[in-house]
Design brief:
Elements (H helix, E strand, L loop, with lengths): L10 H25 L29 H7 L4 E4 L1 H4 L7 H5 L5 E4 L7 E4 L7 E5 L2 E2 L14 E7 L13 E7 L7 E11 L2 E14 L2 E25 L6 E27 L5 E26 L8 E22 L5 E23 L2 E27 L3 E20 L11 E18 L4 E17 L8 E17 L7 E12 L3 H4 L21 E2 L8 E13 L5 E12 L2 E8 L9 E8 L3 E13 H4 L6 E14 L15 E10 L6 E8 L3 E4 L5 E4 L2
Parallel strand pairs: 4-7, 21-25
Antiparallel strand pairs: 1-6, 2-3, 4-5, 6-7, 8-9, 9-10, 10-11, 11-12, 12-13, 13-14, 14-15, 15-16, 16-17, 17-18, 18-19, 19-20, 20-22, 22-23, 23-26, 24-25, 26-27, 27-28, 28-29, 30-31
Length: about 700
């Protein structure tokens, strides 16, 4: 088997170019901040007589989760530390799937794609400490012990970013504590008779002028899973079945890893300057084994195999450093500078054997390596103006570079493509927003954001057509308003009118072709088993959105809310299958799936939430904390005939129900949670339909 060829990139010049571009974007804000800082007043000629002063101790506390939610003009749900640690979860996905409007596309305890309003894959924006998560980073890498709070924004704002058609989830890691903490937590789970241990250590202490907080965790998981995929093809002439296949498989996956996070914070005299450094280091090793059986009830030709077994290993290492410098201005505002740099590396190998009637028919060995490098920076000015205006203006820049090396033992797989693929993207953004109180009963929040993305790369083709580039930019105006019947009312009405977008991924723009393993090239394949490739001509999806919510805040932490929303989407992206002449199969056309802009789409829905303590409503009832939320979604893709012409992988309904009871006088809490996402069908095109969860 050939050895992988490592592809080294001259990254120094790349970093220098992007550092210069980002620095120029921030120059205007930096200059504004300095212009607003007056020179220091001269020292007094005579010293004031000394006086004995009393010591006054002031302690600041963050508002409660409900109070912070109620005060926010833009719709925001805040889940604090108490709620996060209530169940003793070892997986952040189990915390997220209990939150209103959030679902996880995966089995319990195993993470998965995070979705808001049933939409993932770029519709839901995921932030970590206000920054988009870096390439290659999985939220499964974070443990609940490392999280301070989770913020859910159902509509975008100029400050948090507009790549959030479904909404934004901001995960805030734990800051320095007001007291020393040295906490060791040991947890263990049992799944199919296998132990799932997890250990986490958190420590916080002052170190001279610094506050140091760091967390270290280690885990080991060993899990089984099973899956079944059924493929049925029918003739468009008489609806007769032309192909019927069923692929049933079982898999065993084992992962173990070590994760370390930290926060080093320094405060200058009188708190004028604050510098924070946040390092992150993750290392995970995984091994997997899978066996599958392919049965065919109908078809013109026999399947390529009837049994397949595979095993593989992978390693993921991520190192990242984020930082922030904040300076309080004499004029009453403050300026913040943020930066970040990261390096993510993945290496994996897979060995697959296919057999027919017990005889080996095909063997595939595949090795894949990629390196993602990321550099980002930002500057933000925050000012409070007359009339209770809170003004925020800022600029951001981000540069990503990916290099990928792939080696396979099948020389016919991609004969016209090299082993090395490189791609890069640059994002620049500028924004301004203002939040103010119009009257004691009305508050408004208005913003405008511009964002531009440039993508360049190579597919690895040796025919001179591998160079590809894509440029796009979007203006997004945003408006939020809150109305209260009376100034101190706990009832309020929210309205948001926004523009948001979803940008094509780097892989969808510049994607090395992926050949279907069931029908390998050269040769023919089927529309339901296509090859996959990118499309450099994609445009971003742009959505105009309306949100209307009614909220009632109860005593304590209780809340009742109902929210309706609608998103009208232009240039909707969906993968389309077409028969093409391709370089990897000379003389034989093959079906290829490529992402395309196929026109307009719409999604709308209703979201209900209730959270309260039972004895707050019924005095004689026990103190049981109840939580429930339910959502109903409807969507339509205009270019696809109905029924079930919904957006990709959006269910019709989701629901959560949970309860907790704290035993009086004992350190014991008993509780549970039920999450429900029903099965659903999606009509992908006029000729293709997909079922999920059946």
């Amino acid at each position: 088997m050939p050895q992988p060829r490592h592809h080294r990139v001259a990254s120094i010049g790349w970093l220098q170019r992007h550092v210069a571009a980002i620095a120029m974007a921030f120059a205007g804000i930096v200059g504004t901040a300095h212009a607003q800082t007056p020179p220091a007043a001269p020292a007094s000629a005579a010293s004031a007589p000394s006086a004995q002063l009393e010591r006054v101790e002031i302690r600041a506390t963050r508002p409660s989760d409900n109070e912070e939610r109620r005060r926010s003009t833009a719709a925001k749900i805040v889940v604090g530390r108490e709620e996060i640690e209530r169940y003793g979860d070892t997986n952040l996905g189990d915390v997220l799937k209990r939150l209103p409007g959030v679902t996880m596309q995966g089995p319990p305890g195993r993470g998965g794609n995070i979705r808001m309003r049933g939409l993932g894959g770029g519709y839901t924006q995921i932030l970590l400490d206000g920054q988009r998560i870096p390439p290659g980073f999985s939220l499964d890498s974070l443990t609940p012990e490392q999280i301070e709070r989770i913020e859910i924004l159902r509509a975008p704002t100029a400050e948090t970013g507009a790549r959030a058609i479904a909404g934004t989830i901001n995960i805030v890691t734990r800051e320095g504590f007001n007291r020393r903490i040295n906490e060791l937590r040991l947890t263990a789970g049992l799944e199919n008779g296998r132990l799932q241990p997890h250990v986490a250590w958190t420590r916080n202490e002052p170190l001279g002028p610094f506050i140091v907080n760091y967390s270290l965790s280690a885990f080991d998981t060993d899990r089984d899973s099973d899956s079944t995929t059924t493929t049925v093809a029918r003739s468009l002439v008489d609806e007769s079945v032309t192909l019927a296949q069923r692929d049933s498989g079982v898999a065993r996956d084992r992962r173990h890893g070590v994760h370390a996070t930290g926060r080093l914070q320094w405060r200058g005299e009188q708190g004028i300057d604050t510098v924070t450094l946040m390092p992150l280091l993750l290392h995970t090793i995984g091994r997997s084994q899978r066996s599958g059986v392919l049965t065919q009830r109908a078809g013109a030709s026999p399947p390529a195999y009837d049994t397949a077994v595979s095993d593989g290993e992978n390693r993921i290492t991520l190192a990242r450093l984020n930082g922030q410098w904040s300076r309080r201005l004499d004029t009453g505002g403050r300026v913040e500078f943020t930066f970040g740099a990261g390096d993510a590396r993945f290496s994996g190998s897979t060995r697959r054997k296919e057999s027919t009637a017990g005889a080996l028919t095909r063997r595939l060995d595949d090795q894949n390596e990629f390196v993602d490098r990321n550099l980002l920076g930002g500057a933000k000015l925050i000012r409070t103006l007359a009339g209770e205006h809170s003004l925020v203006a800022g600029a951001e820049g981000e540069a990503n570079r990916r290099t990928e090396t792939r080696v396979t033992n099948d020389p016919a797989l991609l004969a016209n493509f090299g082993d090395n693929v490189g791609a890069s993207s640059t994002r620049l953004a500028a924004y301004v927003q203002d939040e103010w109180s119009l009257t004691p009963r009305w508050a408004a929040h208005a913003g405008l954001r511009w964002e531009g993305i440039t993508t360049r790369g190579e597919t690895g083709a040796n025919d001179g057509t591998g160079e590809q580039a894509n440029r796009s930019s979007v203006w997004t105006p945003l408006l939020h308003a809150v109305w209260k019947p009376v100034p101190d009312s706990r009832d309020q009405l929210r309205i948001s009118l926004t523009r948001s977008y979803r940008s094509p991924t780097l892989q969808s723009l510049i994607g090395r072709p992926s050949i279907n393993t069931r029908y390998p090239a050269p040769g023919a394949n089927t529309p339901t088993q296509p090859d996959r490739a990118g499309n450099p001509n994609l445009r971003p999806e742009v959505a105009t959105g309306l949100d209307v919510a009614v909220e009632r805040y109860l005593g304590g932490s209780g809340v009742l809310s109902a929210n309706v929303f609608r998103r009208q989407i232009r240039d909707y992206l969906r993968s389309q299958v077409a028969l093409e002449d391709v370089a990897w199969s000379p003389g034989q056309r093959r079906y290829v799936s490529r992402p395309q802009n196929i026109g307009d789409a719409m999604t709308q829905g209703l979201e209900l939430e209730a959270k309260f303590r039972l004895n707050e409503l019924i005095a004689a009832a026990p103190g049981i904390d109840l939580r429930a939320n339910a959502s109903a979604f409807r969507s339509r893709v205009k270019a696809v005939p109905g029924p079930d012409n919904r957006l990709d992988q959006q269910p019709g309904y989701t629901a959560n129900l949970g309860a907790d009871y704290r035993v009086p006088g004992r350190p014991l809490t008993i509780g549970g949670n039920l999450n429900w996402t029903p099965a659903y069908d999606t009509r992908v095109s006029e000729e293709q339909r997909a079922s999920q969860g059946r």
